[in-house]
Design a protein that fits this description.
It contains seven helices and 20 strands. The chain has helices spanning 16-27, 57-61, 97-105, 128-133, 172-183, 208-216, 244-248; strands spanning 4-10, 32-34, 43-50, 65-73, 75-77, 86-89, 109-113, 122-123, 126-127, 143-156, 159-166, 187-197, 200-201, 224-225, 235-239, 253-254, 258-259, 269-273, 279-286, 291-297.
Length: 302
Amino acid sequence: MIHGILNVYKEKGYTSHDVVAKLRGIIGQKKIGHTGTLDPKAAGVLPVCLGKGTKLCELLTDEDKTYEAVLLLGKKTDTQDIWGEVLAERNTKTLTEEAVTEAVFSFLGEYAQIPPMYSALKVNGKKLYELARSGQVVERKSRRVKIHDIRLLEVSLPRVRMSVTCSKGTYIRTLCDDIGEKLGCGGCMEELTRTRAGRFTVSDSRTLEEIRTAFERNRLAELVVPVDVMFSEAAKAYVEDEWETSARNGNLLPREAVRECTMGEDGERVRLYNSDGHFIALYRWKEEVREYHLEKMFFPEK
């Protein structure tokens, strides 16, 4: 079984579930999971976890992301993107680049965003998009999201191409709709590409066809990021042979059980390996009891 993370370039027309299903067929293993839904009509970075790497899905979903989007002003739709039913159209001839720029940058920082009806969020056990397709509109609670950075790439009214770096749970469609509302003319998302998800960038991503070719040439390992590399900021530590079974069982480890690790501050995380260099788990040092405590187990079996 292959363990690690693949940086997949999701092409337009595929759902995130489609990508996982196709990878299962290419690689021939079932244990595969994606790290956050990307709309079928959007493209870009979709980190996919393989084998033990699936334990990282939640962690990667929580990472900040960067998108390149095109905002079309003057058109409001029920889905907040160009593919939905048009609810209203307004003239944009009086808009100025200065006013648009001011409105866009006003969303920098935290703001309360109401999730769109056409989304996979659940209300009373039902996905919002299922309710929306049946003609229902339900009340949604706003959520605090954070827009870390916005760069205007091109302003050619009524279109605005921009790069947005944001926290998890941010809907770029909704941001486009909110900007349009602030300008009083409405707006919707016309294009979307995710260019970064955590450490994974679009320049390093690979299409499904490229991954298939690499697999057929026995070169897939070159594309897979190993599980332990995801924690490269943590120091490497090696468990003594007589303590390896304890480590694989997730037991507390005294200082003498771990070697080749410079003692750090309380709570410092280490990547724990056995003497053969095989990654086992993440541990943290607890100064108060002077022991290493398990944070997350990855390879309990030898």
